[in-house]
Amino acid sequence: xxxxxxxxxxxxxxxxxxxxxxxxxxMPEEYEKMELFFEKVLDTFVNxxxxxxxxxxxxxLRALTFLNSSGIKTICVSLVMEAxxxxxxxxxxxxxxxxxxxxxxxxxxxxxxxxxDIVFE
Length: 121
Known about the structure:
By secondary structure, the chain is an alpha/beta fold. The protein is 35% helix and 30% strand.
C-alpha cells in the first residue's frame, strides 16, 4: 500500500513498517487521503496480528526532509493518537539526527502516546 505525491511517498509493507519520505507540504485534500491511509494501515495491522505476534508498528521518518505544520498535525492526530487507542500497540519512530524538524518536533510526540519509542540515528 502506498500514496505518492510529487515530492513525497508514504508506504506500508503490510508487516508493520510505515515509511514516509521526501518533502511533504501537501494540500488539504492530500492530507485527507493520508488520514484515510493511516486508518487503513492501523486496521490492516491490527487485523493481521497473529496470536503472540509482535505488536510493534515502525514509523520510519529518516528520509522525510521537510514536513509542514499540517503534516505534523496529520501524523499526530491520525496516526500517533489513533495508535495510542489500540490496546497493546507499541509505536517506534525512526528519525534522523541531521533533519532539524525531526530533532525539534518528534520528541513532543511522547506527550501523545504512552507506548512510544523514538530513535535517532
